[in-house]
Amino acid sequence: MQTAALLRLLQLASPSLPVGAYTYSQGLESAIENGSVHNENSARIWIKEYLDIAADFEVPIVWRLLKAFSQRDAATVTYWTECFIAARDTAEFRAETIQMGYSLAKLVMDLSIADDSLRAILAGQSEIPFPTAFAGAAEALAVPHEAALSGMLFSMVENQVLVCVKSVPLGQVSGQSLLLSLHPVIEKAALRAQQLNDEELSNWAPGLSLLSIQHETQYSRIYRS
Prior knowledge:
This protein is mainly alpha-helical. It is built from twelve helices and no strands. The protein has one domain (48-216): Urease accessory protein UreF (Orthogonal Bundle), CATH 1.10.4190.10.
């Protein structure tokens, strides 16, 4: 991977990216509240299972969107965009992906990093979830597809680890140990996402959905999901 592409990927996957990812826990705050996640080991189990879910649906869709954007295939981009939005099964999860997607797509437009055809595809979507915006940004920045998947997965894991560091709470060393131990899980998830056929995709995760629903009415919370 060339240095220029690596630097663009690091910027795209950075927690400083102004999309508001740090304000969401993806249901983790509820799991901490009910005691399911309470130390480094339980956090590792949670994040691994979260990645397993993502590797069966969200990340394979990102893989398909990367291919569609590279071919400037607007119809396929729209198809997988609509599939992903329809699969968000709680109000919080839907609002999260639309807000983050809008913010990243706007950033792509404001930075003028996309060519006219790419901008037209993004502008043609009635709503832009985060996977679509991320794939579009990766294509605009000429980030290799395999690297883009790994970068997205790492940023997802990093955000979950930061939630645990703040809210379990875990110490900084424990958080870095947790993040380091999840590198093989990220690699496995990225590989699986590239291998699944369309009919194998599944977002079936009732436990996560219930935690998201419970978070909507949780008495005390600091995250938006």
